Structure formats: C-alpha cells, structure tokens
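lol ok so funny story. i was supposed to be doing the assay writeup but got distracted and ended up predicting the structure for this chain instead. priorities right. anyway since i did it might as well share w the group, maybe its usefull for someone
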Amino acid sequence: MTNPTIEELQNSENYELVAELEHRQIKEFVIDQITTESKLIKGFMIYQGIMILVGLFFATRPIVLTMRGNSEPLFYLLGAIVFTFTLLIIIHELLHLLALKITGAPKITIGGYLKKFIFYAEADRHVLNRKQFALVALTPLVVVKAVTLIAIILTIGEPAFYFWMFVMSAHSLFCAGDIGLLSFFDRFPNSKVFTFDVKEEKRSYFFRKK
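and the output, tada:
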C-alpha cells in the first residue's frame, strides 16, 4: 500500500495535522517527547544511562594508565574525541541519507545549526510512514553500534580498544533526537501517522489518519 500524497494529507477529511516542527526547534521538540511515557523512550533512557557509565569509565581509564607510564591509550582516546565530534557527525547524517534513499526519497539535503549542535537530513516533500521513519531514524544507531562492537571485540587488550569504546558510547547521545522523533508516532497507537519535510520552510509536518 502506497503512502498518501501531500495533497491528500493536507486536503482530505481523512487526515488531520497533529504536529508541525520547525527544524531550529528540533531539540525542544525532542525534549518534549522524552517526557512522555513511551516504552521506546524508557528503553532508550536505560540504554543511554548504561552507555554514559561505560563511556565515563573507559574515558578515565587511559588517564590512569598514563599516570602509570602508558600514554598510548590516551592518544587513542583523544583521537576518538576528535573523530566523534567531526567525522562521526557526517557519517551519522550520511547513514540517514542512505536510509532515506532506500525509502525512495528523490531530494535529500543534509543541514544543521552549528550553534545549537543540531544536524539533520531532510527529504523534501517525501511522505514517510512509521515503518519508513523508523528505518531512517534507527539506521545510524544500528550501523554504528554494529561496527563499533565488532571493532571492540577485535581490539580487546590493545590501545585502539579505547577509541572504539568512546565512539560507541558517545554516539548514543547523537541518537537521542532520532529516538525522540520516532517516539512521537507512539502518541497515536491506533492511527496511521505520516510525516514529510518542506525544505524551503525548514519544517516537518505530521498527519494522522482519522
């Protein structure tokens, strides 16, 4: 079954607008979702807490090792910090782009608001249902998690182990926005919800079927 068109969503009596998101306000929108009782949010918050604890432990361990005369793990940790807040951001958005391409999106733009540390991939006027949005939202989390876990297993006992541990732990923070947006669909468990971006407006719209 194909998704409704934008014209059908906006003009048909079968659908109603339930949310309008300005991209500059993504962070505020996500925070609002995190305060809900969504099972997805609860599960992610537990996962997030574990990743923060793991990240803190393995970020301080190289400092201790340096004080004992082994500074190599610290260099890998510093490299991980630089990588995470530069190239990993680009990789994260490119994975969103790839997922959007899989859903058939013809026009995709990667953008961001550096001062707010907000980055996004938008598919101009491309309607997504919940399953498709879940694919787009979860692809970076799943792919980066899988790659880092494999790398961690392969580098246990080596200095590079600390690089991959930090990347895996820190990347979970990048995924909070994706999970928050996905959890919005759970507010309407008995309705089909669709969303699309409008590039020139820098906005996303959410409609539900009545």
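The chain has one domain: 22-209. The helical segments are 6-11, 26-34, 39-67, 72-84, 87-102, 130-154, 160-174, 176-183.
back to the writeup now i swear
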